[in-house]
Amino acid sequence: MTRSLKLPKQAPRRHPKPPEGSWTEHHPELDTAPVSYEGSISPEFFALEREAVFKRAWLNVGRVEQLPRKGSFFTKELAVAKTSLILVRGKDDEIRAFHNVCRHRGNKLVWTDHPAEEVKGTCRQFACKYHGWTYELDGRLSFILQEEEFFGIDKADYGLVSVPCDVWQGFIFVNLAAEPEQTLREYLGPMITAIEYPFEKLTQRYYYRGDIKSNWKVFLDAFQEFYHPPILHGNQNPVMRQADYKQKGFYTSHFQIDGPHRVGSTTGGAGGLLVPEFYNPIEQLMRSGLFGPWDPSEIVGDELPPGLNPGKVKHWGLDSFQIFPNFAIVFWETGWYLTYHYWPLAHDRLLFEANAYFMPPRNVRERLAQQLGIATIKEYALEDCGTLEATQMGLESRAVTSFPLGDQEFMCRHLNKVIHTWVEDYQRKQAEG
Amino acid sequence: MAERMLPAEFSDLEPFVREWCLDSEPQRYAKRLASSMDEIQAFYDAVFPRAEAAMQYLDPLPLDDLPEDAHRLLKLLYSLILASFPVEIWRQPYIPDTSTSEFELKIEPVP
Q1: 3-32 in chain B: CB under 8 A from chain A
Q2: Do A389 and B74 touch (CB under 8 A)?
Q3: What is the distance between the alpha carbons of residues B70 and B5, in angstroms, rounded to a whole number?
Q4: Does B106 touch chain A (CB under 8 A)?
C-alpha cells in the first residue's frame, strides 16, 4: 500500500520552531506555567471585562456590503455593553454609528416587533415609535412633536449619541469609549493592517449564529488551536479517522503576535489531492469539504494577497487571524474566507457568529461546493458547542484550578495573558482616578 | 397523476419532493433531525446516484434565474448534503455529543 505516503505530511521537522525551542518561550512574557481559567467562570471578572475590554477595544460589527446604499442601516445588539447600536450610511456616504436610543425618553429608536432583535433596512430618517421625535441619517434631531411645549429646548443639543466608528478593508469597527485611546489603524497594528485582500469581491455570504452556554474565551480558545481536531473531530472524515493522525496529532506551522492580536498558519488541506478513499462520498461528488471548495476561486493567483502567510509557510493552507478581543478572520487557500465573532452574553454564555464569504458562484457546481463547505462547518462547530458547554461545567466545578497549555495552545495562552493585562491596566487607571 | 415538480428526466425523484424540497438550512436540518435513519438512508440512496446527472442538468442553466422545477431539483441536492452526514459519518441523524446547542444558518443565498 502506498496510501500512507499520500497523507498530509506532519513530521515535526516540517514545522520548525523558533530558536528558543518553542513558540511560547520565544515570547518570555507569556511564560510556560499552567494558567487559570477563573476569568472564564467568574461573574465579577466578566463585569470587569465589560469595562476594561469591550468598552475600550475596537469591535467589528459588520461589513460595508451590509450598508449598500445611502440610508441603508442595521442595528447591532451589544449585550456585553448593554447597548444597541445603529450603523447607517448617510446621504454623504459616510458610515456612522449611534447608540440606538431616543434622546427624549430613552426609548430604543430602531426595532421591529421584538425590541431585542436586530433589524436592517433602508430609510430617510429615524422616527421614534413613542412620540415621533425624528433624527436624520447623520444623527441630527430634526423634529420634535409640539416643540413649543418643551422648555428652552434646542434641537442641536439632542442629536443621537454617536459612537466612534471607522472602516478597515470594508470591516466596520466601533469603539465604545468616549475617546478611543488609539485610532483603528493604530489599534490593529502592522500585522493586521498589512492585509490587503479582495474582500469586496467575495459577496456570497452565509451567516450562522448560535447562543451557546460557555464563556466566550473558553469557546474562542477551541477556534484558535489545531490541537483538538484530530480527536474531537476525529470521526468526521477518512483522513481524520487514520490512526496515524490521531496518534501524531497536528502541528501549526507558524504563530505570530502583534500587540493584542495573533495569527496561526497551517499547511494546506484543500481536498482533491489525496486518493479518493480519504474523502467522504459527498466530498468526492461535490469537490468540497471542511477546507471549502477544492477548486480555487477566481481570486487565487500566483501570489498570495499582501499580509497573508506572514511566516512564509511552505504548502500554506490557511491563516487564522485573531483580532482582539473577539473577532477572527480565517483565509483559505482556495480563495474564500470566514469570520468568527464571539459576543459575550454573560460570564457563561455567548452569541457565536460565523460568516463564510465566497465569490458569487457561476454555476450550480460552484454553488453546491460552497453549500457543502458551509454544511461541514456546522457539523464541526456543533461538536465544539457540545464539548465547550461541558468544559464550562468542568471549569465551574473549580475542582481543578490550574491548567497546563502546550505549545500548540500558544494562542490560547496569549489571549489569556492579554485579557488579564487589559483588566489590570483598567484597574490601575481606575485606582489612579 | 400529480403535477410534475421536477424536470422530466428526474421523475424518479418526484416522491421525495414533498418532504425534502425545503427552502432554508434550518428547515433542512430540522427535517434531518425529525427523520429516522431509514428515511434518511432511503432519500440518500435515491438521490445520491442521480446527483451527478442532476448537476450536469443544472450546470448550464442561469443560476440567478433557474426555472422552478430546476430550483426544486437543486433544493433536493441541498438536502442531500445534510443527509450525507448521518449516512456517511454518524450512523444517526444528529451529531454525537452536541447537547442541545443550536447553530443555524440565518442568512443564505438564494438559490
Answers
A1: 25, 29
A2: no
A3: 9
A4: yes
Supply the ipTM of this predicted assembly. Answer: 0.98
Dihedral of the CA atoms A398, A401, A406, A409 (nearest 10)? 60
- Smallest CA–CA distance, residue B38 to chain A, in Å, is 19
Instruction: Verify whether the Cβ–Cβ distance B81 to A375 is below 8 Å.
Output: yes
Contacts of A379 in chain B (CB under 8 A): 85, 89, 95
Vertex B93 angle, CA B88 and B97, to 5°: 95
Q: Evaluate whether A272 touches A293 at the Cβ level (below 8 Å).
A: no
Angle of helix B37-58 relative to helix B68-85, nearest 10 degrees, comes to 130
**Is the CB of B89 less than 8 angstroms away from the CB of A379?**
yes
DSSP B4: P
Do the Cβ atoms of B88 and A205 come within 8 Å?
no
Do A282 and B80 lie within an 8 Å CB cutoff? yes
User: Model confidence over B87-109: pLDDT tens digits?
Assistant: 999 999 999 998 778 899 999 99
Please compute Rg for chain A using Cα positions: 23
pLDDT score of B90: 94
Which residues, including other chains, have CB under 8 Å from residue A7's CB and lie 6 or more apart?
A: A239, A242, A244, A245, A274
What does the pLDDT look like over A153-179, one tens digit per residue?
Answer: 999 999 999 999 999 999 999 999 989
Task: Write out the H or E segment, with its range, that includes residue A286.
Answer: helix A281-286
All three cell numbers of A240, joined, read 481524520
The beta strand positions in chain B, using DSSP E, are 104-107
In total, chain A counts a number of residues equal to 433
Amino acid code (one letter) for A356: A
* Among B25, B29, B63, beta carbon nearest to A367: B63
CB contacts, 8 Å: B74 with chain A: 364, 367-368
The residue-averaged pLDDT of B29-52 equals: 98
Lowest mean pLDDT of A13-17, A107-111, A165-169, A251-255, name the range.
Answer: A13-17
This prediction has a pTM of 0.95
pLDDT at position A240 over 70? no
pLDDT digits (tens, 9 = 90+) for A314-354: 989 999 999 999 999 999 999 999 999 999 999 999 999 99
- Is the link from the previous residue into B111 a cis peptide, with omega within 30 of 0? yes
A162-163 vs A336-346, strand pairing mode: unpaired
Neighbours of B19 (CB within 10 A): 13
Distance in angstroms (rounded) separating the CA atoms of residues A113 and A127: 15
Q: What is the DSSP annotation of A190-250?
A: HHHHT----GGG--EEEEEEEEESS-HHHHHHHTS-SSSHHHHTTTSSHHHH-HHHHHH--
